[in-house]
Design goal:
heterodimer, A: 255 residues, mainly alpha, 10 helices, B: 59 residues, 2 helices, 83% helix, rod-shaped
């Protein structure tokens, strides 16, 4: 008996509440305005700073300004993948419906961010390396990340049953997780054209503060935008999967 | 400010095409990622409302 009690207290209360689609729908509805405002202010401010006030690179000139989109989108594409795999694992282990929905909502968002990172990288590569694309370790592993996202999306649309689709995509996402450290260390393990990471936790950035501070603003802004888009997708997914429940019916009737 | 004139700003020191293309794609992807889920949700709610009306009409 005593053991049962400790088992119940093992996870905090909010963890169980998160499992309720209705509670999740309500809390995201409350969080959305704040995150939207934050994302708008940070992204607009960061873009103006990046385009008008940040200094140009002494070698690359103004094409350097692409970094303010390229780095945030690449960081977010990887964070989003880790979140998708983690949510998928939680869904597999605890059979949590909301976790499955989060994992599903991550896929198209992450795919678009990976695409943005690759596109801006190609555009930046042309004036800097003289080529749109090279089969470099960093670029290739990023392309694999995009394909993993597309694979998850294809699997979701191919499997009719929501539970089965969530299980198979979670397994695919977890297997693909091996690609994340490969992306991170690709610039160290292989000889690549790609420059090493701008931000590390242990060292100061190699660029001056007036260059990396707007970049930090853009990264935080992209995280807020990611939160907004993810919550919007999650709310639609919650409604879709809970359409038979009385609270969704009441929501439909009340509008 | 790092630019002398508007033309200088658009030109980006000869890299205008690259910079504006990158920022343009970024804007399109950000906007799409907000508009698409909002539209999906509205479509879903409209569809459910129609279904409810239909079921009420039958009974």
């Amino acid at each position: 008996m005593a053991k049962n009690k400790t088992d119940k207290n093992w996870m905090p209360r909010w963890f169980y509440q998160l499992a309720s689609p209705r509670w999740c729908y309500d809390i995201t509805g409350k969080l959305l305005p704040a995150f939207s405002l934050l994302a708008l202010v940070l992204l607009l401010g960061g873009t103006v700073w990046a385009l008008l006030f940040a200094p140009a690179d002494y070698q690359q000139g103004n094409s350097f300004r692409i970094i303010y989109i390229h780095v945030p989108s690449a960081i977010l594409a990887q964070s989003c993948y880790m979140m998708m795999a983690l949510a998928g694992a939680i869904g597999l282990i605890w059979k949590m419906k909301v976790a499955d929905m989060v994992a599903k909502a991550c896929a198209p968002l992450g795919a678009s961010l990976a695409l943005l990172a690759l596109a801006t990288g190609a555009i930046w590569g042309k004036p800097t390396w003289g080529s749109w694309w090279v089969w470099d370790a960093r670029l290739t592993s990023m392309l694999i990340l995009l394909f993993l996202y597309l694979g998850v999306m294809a699997l979701h649309s191919a499997i009719e049953n929501d539970t089965t689709a969530a299980q198979s995509t979670a397994v695919l996402a977890l297997v693909g997780l091996v690609n994340i450290p490969i992306i991170k260390y690709s610039v160290e393990w292989w000889n690549t054209l790609h420059q090493p990471a701008t931000f590390t936790l242990t060292e100061k950035p190699a660029m001056p503060v007036e260059m990396w501070l707007p970049l930090l603003v853009m990264v935080v802004g992209f995280y807020c935008f990611f939160a907004v888009s993810l919550m919007l997708r999650l709310r639609h997914e919650i409604l879709r999967r809970e359409r038979r429940s009385s609270w969704v019916q009441a929501l439909v009737e009340s509008r | 400010m790092k630019f002398e004139s508007m033309a200088d700003f658009i030109g980006m020191g000869g890299h205008g095409l690259y910079v504006w293309l990158a920022y343009g794609i970024a804007l399109a992807i950000v906007v799409l990622n907000v508009v698409q889920p909002l539209r999906q949700k509205r479509q879903f709610l409209n569809q459910q409302a129609r279904r409810l009306r239909r079921e009420k009409g039958l009974s």
